[in-house]
Structure formats: C-alpha cells, structure tokens
Amino acid sequence: MTVNAISQPALKVRGLHKEFGRFVALDSVDLTVADGEIRAIIGPNGAGKTTLINVLSGQIVADRGSVEIAGRRLSRQHPHQVAKLGVGRTYQISSTLRRMTVFDNMLCAHNAVSGNWFSLRAGRLRAMEDAVLADLKTIELDGLANQVVDDISHGDRKRLEFGMVLATRPKVLLLDEPTAGMGLRERHELIDLVLAVTRERRLTLVFVEHDIDVVFKAAESITVMALGGVFAEGKPDEIAANSAVQDIYLGGNA
Amino acid sequence: MARGEGPPTESGSALQGRDAYSINWRLVAAVVLLQAILLVVSPPLLVFALIEVMIFALYASALNLLLSFSGMVSFGHAVYFGLGAYGLALSITHFDFPIALGIVAGPLVAAFFGLIYGILCVQLTAIYAAMLTLACAEVTYAVVFQWFDVTGGDSGISGHVPTMLGLAPYQFGLVVLCVVTVAILMLWRVVYSPLGLTIRAVGQNPARAAALGHGRKSIQLIAFVISAFFSGVAGTLFGIFHGNVFPDYVGVLFTVDGLLMVVLGGLYSFGAGIYGAIIYKLLDNLAAHYFQYWQLVVGVIIVVVVLVSPSGIAGLVRRIVDRFERRP
Q: A24 partner at 20 to 30 Å CA-CA among A71, A137, B34, B218?
C-alpha cells in the first residue's frame, strides 16, 4: 500500500450510524481508505457491510456521521449525484439492463458519461461504438456483444456490471460481493480482472466479499465488521493471525 | 415469461446486422405509399376507419414511449389526448385564435398538463405513480365535465372547426397520414437517440441508471412530457376529424383503449402502438359488425393474445421474421 502523503484519503468515514427500526445496522463506523488502496470488508451476515456500501453510494442516508469522498463531504446526495463524484458501485445481485444487449448496456454507460445523454442525434451513439467494443474487449465480453443480457450467464452479468461501472471512469470502486454466486474459476478470473484494472488505473477499491481466498488474494488491507461496527482492521496477515477474528468469522468458514 | 419464446427485448443494438438506430426509409416509404393508395381508393366509410386507426396509432405510440421504455404506467393518458382536442377548441372559442394557431395550441396544452401532472407523478414509482396518473385524470375529467361555462360540460364543444377542415375524407386522410408519419418518426428519433437510451436505461433499471449518473425523476419527466405532447397531437387530429370535443375524450375509456392497443401490439417494442391500433380497431369494427356482444369477443381475443404471446403482435411478427431470416 502506497499512501501519498499529500493526497487526501479516497474515503473517510466518521461515526457513521444507521438504524432500521430497532436494528442497529451501522454502529459508529470509522473507516479511512487511502487513495489507491485495495480494501476488503468482511464479516458475518448482518454485520452491516452492504448498508455501509449503500450509505457510501448515496442509496441510504445515515442517521449520524460523516462521509468524505476525496475530501468532499456527502450531505444527502442522491445516488446519481454521488456517482458523478467518481464513485462506481456494483450490487450483490448484479444490476444491469436485462432487456438490452450486452453492447447496448455498455453503450448506456458510455452515453451516461458522454455529457450528451439528452441529445437526439443517433450519430452520437454510433460515434461511441469503437470505445464500447474496446471496453467489452477489456472485460472479455466482446464475443457476447449481441446477446440479450437476460440470456447470458450470471457470471458474465457480474462481469458486464463491473465493465459498465468502469466505463463511467470512477475514482473509487465499491463492489458489493463481486463474485457472489459464481463458480470457482469464474470467481478468480473476475477478481484478477478487477485487480488488473484497479492497479492499472490507480483506482481505489473497496469490496465486500465472503470468499476468504479471494479476500486474501486481493486485499491490501482488511476491515472486519460485526454487529454494525468495525471489529478489526489491518493487513491480511494481521487479520489472519487475529484470534478474535478467527472466532467470530474465519473459524466457521475456513 | 412465457414458455417457448425468449424474453421481450428491446431491439436497437448497432451491431445487429442492419443498424437499428437508423430509420428504414424503404419500409417507411412503402407503408406510407400503401396507406395513401388505400385512402384514395377506399369508400368514405373505410377512409373514416383508416383515419381513426392512424390517429390511434400515434396516440398508442406516444403512450408506448411510457409503457415500454420509460418504466412508467399511465392510467390516465386520455387526458393528454383529450386536452389536445380541448386545447384546439378552447383556444378558438375563448381566445379567438385562428384555426391554424389553435391546431398548434392543442398539443402544447397537452404537453403543459403533461409537465404539471408529470412533476407530481414522477415523485412516486410503480403502482403508486400509476394511481396518481389515474387521480390526475379523474380530476381533469371532473373539471371538464362540470365547468359548463367554459367546456360546455356534457354537451362538449362543436362548430369551432369545420369537420375534417372541410376537406374530402381522403384528402383529410392524407393530411393525417403526413402528420402521423412525421410524429411517429419523431418518436422513433427520441427512442433511438442518446436521450432514448437514457430513458430506456432509467425505465429498465433506475438503480443502475442512478449508479451511471442519471436521476430518475427528471428523465421520466422528460419522457412524460414528450408522450403527452404526441398524445395531444393525436387528440388534436381527432378533434378536427370529428369537428367537436366531449368529456369522453379525456375519459377512462380512451385511456383503456390506448393501454389495450399497446399490450396487444406488444410491450417493449417500438411498433406496439401501430400494430395494436390496427388490430384493435379492426377487431372493434369487425366484431361490432358480426356479434351482438362484440366487446366480449374483443375481450376474449385480447386475453388469448396476451396468454399466447405476451410480447404481443410485435413479438409474433419478430418471430416470423426471424424464422425467415434464418433460412438460407
């Protein structure tokens, strides 16, 4: 992990608190992710991982606490406004445009950041074709360009979702279980792709993941959440050696 | 999803053989020419039916922009259709507009109400938004029905514009053909443009669209106003066609007609409104001619079509075309 002394943290969370009824989903969470860092968030079900991602991306407004993204403080922005700050997110259950082709999905992503989304000139879309195909090649889905998303595999859909997020040129990636429900091989192929792109573009990556192999392969640092709070934080080897973490989390699964 | 067929999809990929984002001018020319010939050679009674089909094809296509592409349902779209006709009538009777200006005013009045009601309706989503469109429609109907001094209440307004502008039926038919063709081509331009892609993205998956940077409300509002405008164009034509306007034009039956046409034509397809209007009006006329309980017959046919082919006539046509294209 290289922390540039001058640059601000990509993500700075202080005292984040969120309750759903009586259930405390986030309990004064502090989190600092440096620019360019690759951070895994792990923890048992109900630990508040997805809620955290939802707050960071503007889906949910926290009851208390602050979120700063590259020095800019969030204050009740809507998801599309947070997206424009350079935050790209994927969902636990992949979220794509399922009645469109793979190509058109990627076209949507390019269209969204073109600055001309309101244009009536079809020529603007044709002008994006090469860039769209190039991006599909990056995520190795160019062969499926004309397939309707409903017809492609679960893993390919996750890959497409990731690709669409990339196309919006985010600075911070929030991936909620990027490999959930995928086969072992697919899983590692996808995470290799995510890592390669993240490093190449010097992005900041925060990902929630249940697969411990994937976590230890990818993460530069790990945040362990439990019962809505941050339970432990550190380098992968520190976390692996932490007996308390083993008790609540790794023990049962490893 | 029905068995035996793929899910309904939105064609439009630039990679599918022919560039789907550009207009197939040959097809357009062929259809327009055929329709023009039909209008000229048919007896007046059939010409009237053809004019009605064209007007409703535009109305249903405008509604289809909402249903198929923007992810909204309108249970009160007759409001914008009817307000087109009322806009024409009232601008002439109450503001002494010349007829030509009144014709322009009709769609603008519809679009204006589309903006006002649209701002309300996009605050909600799904069934709640749909119920709000219904509420807006009921309010409009009540006002139009009861504000006797202005709208003439139940007896409507007539005599403000000569029926069919005083033209012969086939001549007026040709005028309608021109207007409807241009309007539907404009709708095509909307759907298959960057704006249309944005509308479709929001319509299919507001969460993903938001993650890409699109706010749902503003984009659905744009779609709503466009749809209201073109519904208003159809309503204005309808008002000229009959030379009158009644509260029924903003009523629930015209709304249901539009919805049925789109569903019959096939959701998630651009042609839904056109196919639907043709089939629905054909059924309407034929069934009424042969059966006493014709509405029952039409209802049963619609149920069967929806069960057999949820993607409507458009899906059926697409499957047939696909089969032909696969053969060498």
A: A71
